[in-house]
Amino acid sequence: MFSSGMLFVLAGPSGAGKTTLAHHLAAKYEDTNFSVSTTTRPSRGEEVHGKDYFFVDDDEFTRRIENSCFLEWAHVHGNRYGTESSWVREQMALGKSVILDIDVQGAVLVKEAMPSAVLIFVLPAGSDVLRDRLEQRNTDSDKTVEKRMKAAAGEISFMGVFDYYICNELLEDAKSELEIVFLAERMRLRNIGWPLEALDYHSGYMNGLNYWQGKKVVVSSGPTREMIDEVRFISNRSSGLMGVSLAEAFLAAGARVVLVSGPAFHMDPPGPVRIVKVGNTTDMMESLKKEIVNADFLVMAAAIADYTPVSIAPAKMERVEGEISILLEPTPDVTASLSAPCPVLSFALEYGKNAVERARGKMERKGSTAVFLNMGDVQGAGMETACNSGTLLFASGVKNVEIPFGSKKFIAFGIAAALGREMRNLENG
Ligand code: 5GP
User: Fold this and answer.
1) Ligand 1 atom closest to Cα of 14?
2) Atom 2 (ligand 1): residue with closest C-alpha?
3) Is residue 97 within 6 Å of ligand 1 at its C-beta?
4) Is this structure's pTM higher than 0.85?
5) Where does CATH 3.40.50.300 sit in the chain?
6) Least confidently predicted of 50-59, 127-136, 357-366
7) What is the CATH code of the structural domain delimited by 7-189?
């Protein structure tokens, strides 16, 4: 079972000591690497290309932006700096943690692209201490020191986006605090997959996971948002937790995973999972169309709206007295209209009697390989809950797999394993 690497982002005003702290962490823990940024700034003194920075000219930097090479990039003190995306994701997919020492704007952008990144704000005590440090560096003129002090105030205003705060007044204390953050994050279940020691307790349940090694799996997740005007929308209660848990399970099984998610409460899969954010049903369909081209499997965990307003009112509709009506039209059946070039797992949330027959009918209509049926009337399971249970039905007619009540993460691993067994059977005829 694979454990995912983590992304640690150290940011804070220039002179806070984040570079020293970042190098300390990289030196202390194996499987932890410092990310070398790309910059348009000319090299200073003894800086080495490839070690301190990758120094490139403006045209090359622009070319890399256009080719989506950066996880984030920003203008800092008149130059451009960026973090190479593919290197970071590759390292994390190998189970190695990556440390970034970047500016605050860049850190905020990383959080958007990779919500599981751990953002640590470093401050060198009060403003007088920072001023002393900048002056003692002797590399900056008085004017530059003033500029950096002003920039520091601006950067501190973004502190609320961060996960941790370290005051680097005494370097040894700051180093220990950083180590504590690192160790705690390493124990986060999200990054561990399913602990090896816990596997034996459910004999046979996880068999089949290794089928996914090296495969590309696309998981759709969360609700869609069908806009009424610029502010209001029609949606549903999907929290996105089932989709994120499935992304986590397929990743832990060794797959390359893309999560195509509508606006959900849970959108924080482990770092190596690439996230594609979508809004309404049409966006969801367009993004899935692109992602499934070379995929080995599609998991349709998203709760896609069945109806959408016929038109979107401009700006914010005025409140009026009395009733109003909004004309709705059906959305396309995304799974059926995608005709995915790979096998598909559908989801059926059902209430009441004949649920199995209805789920089977849904699987046939959508041309899916399997359907996961979960009952909306089971207490503590289904939408907006941490737990779930259900039955996996297969188009091949092979025996149903009952997935017992447990955390959505446990359910996700059970589904991924059972699908792995089914895929292997189908391939072996
Ligand atoms: P310096 O030029 O003094 O080495 O760095 C100036 C600032 O740029 C520092 O605050 C540093 O953290 C930031 N920086 C370095 N690399 C990157 C990067 O890849 N992205 C962003 N956004 N900032 C960076």
Assistant:
1) 10
2) 41
3) no
4) yes
5) 7-189
6) 127-136
7) 3.40.50.300
